[in-house]
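Structure tokens please, single chain.
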Amino acid sequence: MPTREIHRYGPHRDQWGELFLPDDAGPRAPVRGTVVVIHGGYWRDRWTAELGVPTALDLAAHGWAVWNLEYRRAGNDGAGTNGPGGEGRTGDGGWPATFRDVAMGIDHLANLGTPTGGAVDPRRVVALGHSAGGHLAVWAAGRASQAARTGGETPAVPLVGVVSQAGVLDLSAAHRLRLSDDAAANLMGGPESALPEEYALADPMGRLPTGLPVFAVHSREDAAVPFELSEAYVRAARKAGDPAELHETVGDHFAPITPGREAYETCRELLARLLP
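Here you go.
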């Protein structure tokens, strides 16, 4: 069985990750790289990193180190009462806290190389995100390119690629469609009309090009996140010059995070392309 250990990357109760390492990982049994698993749940705090455990166990059994990341989420109430400042929203996450946590959590891997005997290599890290976690994973893919364009701080752990599992890759469209009781407005603290600059910063569509391979896995049968969101992102990314790919699969919204399902196996095969 893989070894499992909790590490905190900040003082908040939700600023932690669980590191899964393959059996005997170390200099004599090097891992294939590190996969950051970012769970979904439409950014609401009723859903936790527990969603990522089956994936983490499976990937560790296949030779990867896995960082199952928790982060602050917005509350579970609807977005209708939220104003531009987030009035009425419960939970400690949302814009910008959720995004800061994802960045901090990924960068914390730079501190885990020595404690793991080199099993975690911050030069070989990819993100795997489901649903809202797919949005956050692809958003994180743009951190390095965004820093280069704006003169901001370079990530301590830049990703080398992302696999999105039915990701909410077009935040503006998710808001227009009012997906999951307008979860996008709940995340952002208000409508896009009141917060256009914030939405632009939070939307993966607004961070192109990233310069990284982003593989979007999605099914037209998905009733929670429309296939068209992944389709639109990949089309825009390729137009911007990124090596993005759309992989149409089958099954419901949870098929990509269910080991043994075709959609999940596709995701694992794509990870093997990024971290052979």
